[in-house]
Amino acid sequence: MSGDEARPTVLSRSAAAEAVLKDAGVEDARREAARLAAWALDVPLARYYAIRDEVFPEDRLPAFLDGVRRRALREPFAYITGSFGFHGLDFAVGPGVLIPRPETELLVSCALEAGLALPGDSVDFLDLCTGSGCVAVSLAIALKEKGRTPHAAATDVSPDALKVARDNAHRLSPGLDLVFLLADLVPPEGSRFDLLVSNPPYVRSDEIAPLAPEITRYEPREALDGGPDGLAFYRRIVASAPRYLKAGGTLLVEHGSDQAEEVRALFAADPLFEGIGTRNDLAGNPRVTFARAASPSDLLESL
């Protein structure tokens, strides 16, 4: 038997990791072990499946074992690797910053559609509760790729999140007019925007504790907790929107799959808004609700 034949393969290391993760209660432990191995080996997941019979390199083993240890403690995979793919971009994430969810890509798509429907070349937008900056950066890049010139601001109450967001913007979209501001939801008044977008905290307070350990132990509660009914931030956003939206501008918010009717009711209660609608995500769940700010003449006609 040669030396290589006696050494553990990628597959055998992954199988051992799978057993550890399964005992720790990690969902889909086999795939998680494969993802950790691919990350430690610095290869795409598809490439991992082609090299499973090869010897696991010794110099890559410490990172793999540490990753398995951390994942067994239920630390999110994105925090272990330090990044998460969103809207075709690789965003840095870490403790203190909410990990982007795939569902939130719909918010970017809807905002892009609204921005492209505007006259002129420039699109001014404000992103509230920006977190990692995934919505603001993705939307700014998408608008630029479509020939528009974005001018944007993004806010967050967390200095840690803003640092991550700024770093992501500098790395992924250097040169874009994208400003990040420390603020409790809205920035100081003075500017109005074509688009107001937000993926605010919307989990009901009493529904946080039963969530997976990956969420409750590691992700920031302030990025999740939407108050007793999950709607606290939506009330504040609706109340603030008249001071920040241009006439004819669009407000777009992500929400929980069971909150669309309540969010639409909040919009409908304010005479500023018209054309209220909701879009479903890829799973068929109501996910993004939007409305257009009526022009002054429209408001007068409705009186």
3D structure, described in words:
This protein is of the alpha/beta class. The protein has 2 domains: 3-73, no CATH class; 94-302, Rossmann fold (3-Layer(aba) Sandwich), CATH 3.40.50.150. It is 42% helix and 20% strand. It has 13 helices and 9 strands. It has helices at residues 3-6, 10-23, 29-41, 45-50, 61-72, 77-81, 105-116, 134-145, 159-172, 213-218, 232-244, 260-268, 296-302, and strands at residues 83-86, 89-92, 122-128, 149-156, 177-182, 193-198, 245-254, 273-280, 286-293. The strands form 2 sheets. The chain has a 7-stranded mixed beta sheet, with helices on both faces. The longest helix has 14 residues, at 10-23. The chain is elongated and about 75 Å long. The N and C termini lie far apart (89 Å). Residues 299-303 have low confidence and may be disordered.
Query: How is the largest sheet built, in terms of strand order?
Result: 5-4-3-6-7-9-8
CATH topology assignment of the largest domain = Rossmann fold
Q: State the major sheet.
A: 7 strands, mixed
Number of domains: 2
CATH class of the largest domain: Alpha Beta
In whole angstroms, how far apart are the ends? 89 Å
Helix/strand order? HHHHHHEEHEHEHEEHHEHEEH
CATH architecture of the largest domain: 3-Layer(aba) Sandwich
Structural class: alpha/beta
Total E-strand runs: 9
Binned, the helix content reads: 40-55%
Mean of pLDDT: 94
Q: Output the number of helix runs.
A: 13
Shape: elongated
> Taking Cα atoms only, what radius of gyration do you get, to the nearest Å?
22 Å
In oligomeric terms, what are we looking at? single chain
Give the full name of the CATH homologous superfamily of the largest domain.
Answer: Vaccinia Virus protein VP39
Strand portion, in percent?
15-25%
Low-confidence spans: 299-303
